[in-house]
Request: fold
Amino acid sequence: MANDPYKYFRVEARELLDGLQAGVLELERGKAATSTVAKLLRLAHTLKGAARVVKQARIAELSHELEGVLSSHREAAALSQEAAGALFKQLDEVRRELRALELPADRPAEAQRPAQAKEAPESIDAVRVPIDDLDSLLRGATEAGVLLGSLRRDLQTVEHLRDLSLMLREQVSLKRAGSDLVGSPRTRGLVEELGNQLERLRRELRLDVERVGNEVSGVRELTQRMRLVQAQTVFPALERAARDAAEAQGKRVEWSTQGGEVRLDANVLSALRGALLHVVRNAVAHGIESERERTSRAKPAVGRVHLTVERRGDKVRIVCSDDGRGLSMSAIREAAVRKGHATPEQAQAMTDRQLTDLLLAGGLSTADALTEISGRGIGLDVVRDTALQLKGQVELTSEPGRGLTLGLLVPLSIASITGLLLEAAGSVAVVPLDNVRRTLRVRPEDLVRRADSDTVAFEGQMVPFLPLERALSRGPGRGRMKSVCSAVVVQSGERLAAVGVDRLIGTACVVLRPLPSVIAAEPLAGGACLDAEGNPQLVLDPLGLIQAAEAVRAVEADAPLREKLPVLVVDDSLTTRMLEKSILESAGFEVALATSAEEGLVMARARRYALFMVDVEMPGIDGFEFVALTRKDPELSKTPAVLVTSRDAPEDRKKGELAGARAYIVKGDFEQGHLLRTIRSLVG
Amino acid sequence: MSDLSVAGVSELRRAFDASFAAAPASASEDTADLLALRLAGDAHAVRLEELTGLVRVPKLLPVPARAPAFLGLVGLRGLLVPVFSLAEVLGYPAPREVPRWMLLCGKSEPLGLAFDDFEAFLRLPLSAITRLAPGAQRPCVLEVVQARDEAKSIIDLARVLATLRVTPSS
Reply:
């Protein structure tokens, strides 16, 4: 910017000229709307203002003339050819002036030769792309990442084949007696060739996958970066606001900026722009004193407004400071008393910080109150609402007589957050890292269990404890905590809750996507993101999570305690029995084991169970028969039965259904989350 | 081959090329393209023109939500797609397992309707479709089609979507 003071002016002026030219063409064709001239007047006015900011008097003058001509056609929906021609000449004149502001490097070669009077073609070095298009590009890159995941799996298969071929080569080369795989020289040659080819394929595939992976990540990163714009994009508008406010009040103001190169999400910047316009305008209008007043206070006659933008991790801090009169603390005290926020004694005892906090909290924030307080309507409502909308913070520091500093700390992007990845009930969920106060190890004895709630001690206070599995309605209720678990202390404002999880995975930067409104998500579901393979993960809303933890009391106080019945697992395979037992127990179920259907029947008749989970293929009575027998028994039929098997044929499913099984789970598709969801839907 | 004259071979070649150049056969005004499926054993069909796709249900993320018949979210070509149980929307009991297939409807905000048994693609004359008498209609079934010796209820997907897109207020 310092090297090229017209860099942004040129971009803006070209856009304005393009808009003016298109509008005049419409008017000439007689196809313009009645609002077209008004729109063109606005464009010409903006061009005039921008030209004045960069001290381009000639362009400002030409724009002023344009305004004059357009004003005379204010009510027209069409222009004569002559009138349009006059406007085009004026626009061309502005373009010529604009071209003179180009740096030599920007200028096309012909334009640098003064002898050539003809118009040089304008270089097109930037295009405008709608954010939706960028999002589509991002989706495409994400999809390419998903396809790459399947290529990586193919690579693993090739690696496995290569390993097998190496083993085969070793076998056919063995000279040892008794090896039935020793091959002829020709066989050994073929096996050798197979191994070589597989190794070559593996190497090439790996290289290609890595290369494509890098390209795809590059496209994703670039697209995400393209969604970010430099903060200085809004500087001209802010400077203009400061200038206009100063001119209107006959003040002199020096405007300066720092950190314009910091990039932030276009949506964030767009939301900030409105708030900052208020801040800057009012800093000049109400903060900066008149020249006479400043001189009488031994201050420089020219007031100063300075805007700083700085990046702080995944946030951006924007500070607007002025050297004006600052806030009148005595006026805030009076307003606090008048509005009933404090007694006169309390107000007197309040520190400056407490008073500005009160202002920011909104208790005194009506326009009237603000005017009464300090004579400055600093647009705090707008600023506070913007910060709230962006999940950011506002800070206000005033030095009476010396100036006011207003700081806004907002995320760089509302689309991208850093999250802590948690695992519960086999699923991964994300909680915004900014809202994580701490992580804890919670032992069963750390929980204070009452009939209505669980709490855990944290930094001297009891905070509600809620297993995430339960919050997501996938858990069996409070259940019995058998071992140490991890918990995340989540904070929103002053409220805290400890959320129990199976595992903490780590942190990651995720692109937050809103949930479809059609699902009417519960408040704790704040959004979703896609993992590297394109599968969705839930992003938790901290406040919703805390509210869910606090709400457990009311729910459980009303719910009668139910008898907890065990699940009976009937399977002749030790491995399957132990696997199912561990899955069920880790989800809070009690489990009883039977090694055969016969044993299962004896156990089933001896006591009640919540569910029978039965293998199909067993020696003696098989699973189908076990289910059919228990369905015929009036007492046992009250307990739902689920078949777990490796047989996936439709006729087997049908057979299970006819026997009376409530669900048919195929071991090949064995997935904990699915198994537990099925069981919970049956057990209730 | 020896029986074919040169002209005969040329004609065959021409016909062969022409078959590739011709636009694929499409439904005429007298026929309807339908997808036959089963819900809880009952025969149903949907009009192909109302679909944007038919896919296997990918990994499903359950999300705490109030919408009835909602099963969860899936990621499809970088988009979040809510998936509902088609059977449940039509008043059948909730499925015990996540259904295997889903119909994709809507382009800008796609939505999945999951079901278990996909039977066939049918191109039938319009005369095979009968509009049900007002008394026999169900909220999302206004017509039946006779195919393969049985009557299949045609699900009006526009009505299904309209029902789902009314977000529950509580």
Chain B has three helices and eleven strands. The longest strand of chain B covers residues 31-39.
